[in-house]
Design goal:
By secondary structure, the protein is of the alpha/beta class. 46% of the residues lie in helices and 17% in strands. The longest helix is centred in the last third of the chain and has 22 residues. It is elongated and about 90 Å long. The chain starts with a strand and ends with a strand.
Length: 471
Amino acid sequence: MVLKIFNTLKKEKEDFEPFKDKIVKMFVCGPTVYDHSHLGHVRTYIAYDIITRYLLFRKYKVFFLMNITDVDDKIINRAKERKIDPIKLAREFEDSFYVDMIKLKLLKNIDKFARASEHIKEIISQIQRLLDKDFAYVTENGIYFDITKFTDYGKLSHQDTEQLNKHRIEPDPTKKNQQDFALWKFQKKTEFGWDSPWGFGRPGWHIEDTAIAEKYLGQQYDIHGGGLDLIFPHHESEIAQMESISGKKPMVKYWTHTGFLNVNGQKMAKSLGNFITVKDALNKYDVETLRLFFAFTHYRSPIDFSEKNIQQSKKSLETLYNALENIQSLKVKTGKLTEDEKELKKDLKEYKQVFIECMNDDFNTPNALSVIFDLAKTFNKFADKNKQINKILQNKAIRTLRQLGGIFGILQKKIEENELTIEIAQLIKQREEARKNKNWITADNIREKLKNMGIIIEDTAKGVKLKKKKN
């Protein structure tokens, strides 16, 4: 089965064939650390985490690189407001970013975080090579890339010269063309910057990423990702820089971009008062609920964040966990498989196959999730009809649902008997005694007390079921 990926450069889905065998080199634009991360950022990070998890599931070897933009006008301006060093401010919000990433289970598969401020040597090297090849020029304000020297400029955003003329990237009368972008900005010695062969200053935004990517991934690599808003001018300029330096095309085989996040139908923005930080969201919602919410929408499509949608995701997650617990609660047996068990075994294989087909279609998470829900329904039907299950088959069923869910970062929680404290065990026993004596008020009070302790009790025809309360 061939994996197909939509390539922004070609505007179509293409068979995925890395430059080298099953080794995948991937770069995703990381945060500009001048403030706390918001849900718009998370939408992108979760999308590429799912993509990485699926590639690993398909036995690809992935090197995932993410940059940290800690040299930027926004950082400098915020630092001036707070009267602190820009790097100190950047480290503060970088630490905040890492905390969010840990809580969202996003750190595991990222192999390298690279700060722009720690790659000035590589940035200077790239600028020098662009000057040597006459793709850049020096003015009294800085060093600029001459877009007229790179005839392919506009190929990623699919814009021609006339359309580009509508953009005023960095107005500067010293530039040859107003669309030329900065590689190095000259600064006063009293300002934030570094020494260079051309004078004191700091790098432009675009050159930071190509310098980092060249160091860790080489001059050509497989996947470059980020939000739709980065296509132009950021990613367009990255291509111009790297392909001008190397003379190799393409710089990246597959350009992929995530859709925008809206809140209640409006674009998320501080000015509209609908700006939601990751920290605020995590204080209110469970991590797996958030991850499932984002996975319900294809990564290239716009997504609308609302209380209604997030609550629906919460209910959907509970549905999946209930199906998992229904299979787990069956009594186990050994011996030959029954006809129902043979059918379940067949379903496990077929659903997994269909799941792979969905994900092979440009990581179609909504369709892949529908397969997981169909599998959950199958579990429920089997549990309703049978009181026991072959132990090997039970393990395989649980493992399959957790494995497929794990690609989205869901269905990874467990409730084990040994996690129950003595106090909880005693309360459960007291409740059972109250029920036997038909003391329903006491039984209900104990149920509520357990709920407050994070344990939910369900009375079923097959006995009492326990599960952890989901936030």
